[in-house]
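Sample pair:
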Amino acid sequence: MRIIDADGHVAEGPSLAVEAMQRWPQHIRPRADGRALVIEGRNYPEADGPGAGCPREHGLSTAAGINYESAEGVLGDADRDHIDTMVLYPSLGLCAPSLEDPEFAAGFARLYNQWIADYCRPTGDRLRGIAVIPIEQVDAAIDVMREAKDLGLVATHIPPALKTRNLDHPDLDRFYAAAVELDMPLGIHGAPGMHLPKVGVDRFTNYIQVHCISFPFDQMTAMTAMISGGVFDRHPGLRVAFLEAGVGWVPFFIDRLHEHFEKRGDWIENGWQRDPQEYLAAGNIWTTCEPEEPILPGVVDVLGDDFIMFASDYPHWDGEWPESTKHLRTRPDISEVTRAKIGGENAKRFYALN
């Protein structure tokens, strides 16, 4: 069975930050205590206050032997965890959607995309990079995404919501059309403490409480916008992954959306046209799972197994390396066909991998 990690992360280390500080000293500098970068006057990560993110010194796994400091080290870690291919989302690069100066935002996104392409290039396609874009500036975002496709990046990261707009806003239609034209899937990924819009987490200042709710709340917000806002009706070729919230919430939320579509769908003008499960069957909606989720067989029974992908969250603190794949490979309550789909076949289709 080929195992593809559909949502790992790269730990960018100092090289990316140093290059960014050299290019844009007026926008980015280290905080005096070393616990964050100060970008446009904001701490990244912001580890205090409402919606607090993970303190920088606690964000990465401390598992014995882990080596995330180079591509070669990551490949060794992948081998130890039985992973053949890792799709790498950003860590620091998750800040890109929140940058406010348009020129700096586009420049940083281009720097990151070139950096991750160079990082992955020597690995024989075992490590594949994800693009970041200045999504608040749609025209620039389209240009940066086109360049990222040429660099060989396999998807584009977008946040669960923009600062003042949801993901169904008409301003984004040109961006979605370009993503379909480029055959570029989109990965929706939140990040507490990275100054993305806060959904519910502003009620908590403890990072662990924030972490409990931030990812599922973010993904429910994003899914509501994209389904009920008609994004998939206007762009039926769009593939979107809702990431890092597990899969247990999906049957509940699809059913909740179904009820609202059935009873009051006509209240959304020029939007909602089909039952939510139809977008799942059409290949618009994808998600990742943690292989140990006890509800996984139930999700497969209710919604099928064609949209679920394995994710490790390597090398972050809440991942299970070096046993991220253990449950996927050994649990007896899913079929071998389902195991192969979740393990790699679905991710191969979503990211259009060889």
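The longest helix spans residues 207-228.
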